[in-house]
Amino acid sequence: MSLTAEQQSRIAALVSDYQAQPGGLLPLLHALQGELGYVPDAATPAIARAFRLSQAEVRGVLSFYHDFRSEPPARHQLRLCRAEACQSMGSEALAQRLRARTGLDDAGRSADGGLELRPVYCLGACACAPALLLDGELHARVDAAALDVLLAGCLEEGGAC
């Protein structure tokens, strides 16, 4: 995906702001994702040059931290807990139901960009399993009916969940 002139300008400005800071790579990546919603692959060469790293090293950092993304986020972000407590209370059945209802691809994205499912390994709500985050909001003791209500809410907002 190519970058707009505005994105290129913003990336250059942020790189300039952070490159002289000791340990500035992670703060730069967070700033980029905060502004653009993701860290574009096309930004990797400029970042690598500024920090005197190889592109592989920059990509290694991006892939190590699971919250960094290399493509624009879907309209709705769903994080389904896959830790032991949630698994024992039915999170796998919820994941299967979600995939069946939304047609998510192997990467966990709906074809229209309306929903992205990403597994997480503990939301800290073990006593209220199974749990998920939808657009940053915690939902606990989620069953099939509650999942359907959440998905319907996404549909009403114009994004096909």
What does this structure look like?
The protein is α+β, with helices and mostly antiparallel strands and 161 residues long. It has two domains: 5-64, no CATH class; 76-156, Glutaredoxin. The chain is 46% helix and 11% strand. It has helices at residues 5-18, 25-36, 44-51, 55-64, 84-88, 91-102, 144-156, and strands at residues 76-81, 115-120, 132-134, 137-139. The protein has a four-stranded mixed sheet, covered by helices on one side. Strand 3 (132-134) and strand 4 (137-139) form a beta hairpin. It is elongated and about 50 Å long. 24% of the residues are buried.
Briefly characterize the structure:
Helix content is 46%, strand content 11%. With 161 residues, it is of the alpha+beta class. The relative contact order is 0.12.
User: Helical content, roughly?
Assistant: 40-55%
Distance between the termini: 24 Å
Count up the domains: 2
Briefly note the structural class of the backbone: alpha+beta
Strand fraction band? 5-15%
Mean pLDDT, rounded to whole units?
92
Q: What is the CATH C level class of the largest domain, in words?
A: Alpha Beta
Report the radius of gyration as a whole number of Å.
18 Å
Biggest β-sheet description: 4 strands, mixed
**CATH superfamily descriptor of the largest domain:** Glutaredoxin
Continuous helix count: 7
- In total, how many beta strands? 4
Q: And the CATH topology of the largest domain?
A: Glutaredoxin
Order of helices and strands: HHHHEHHEEEH
Report the uncertain regions. Answer: none
- Strand order of the main beta sheet, please? 2-1-3-4
CATH architecture group name of the largest domain = 3-Layer(aba) Sandwich
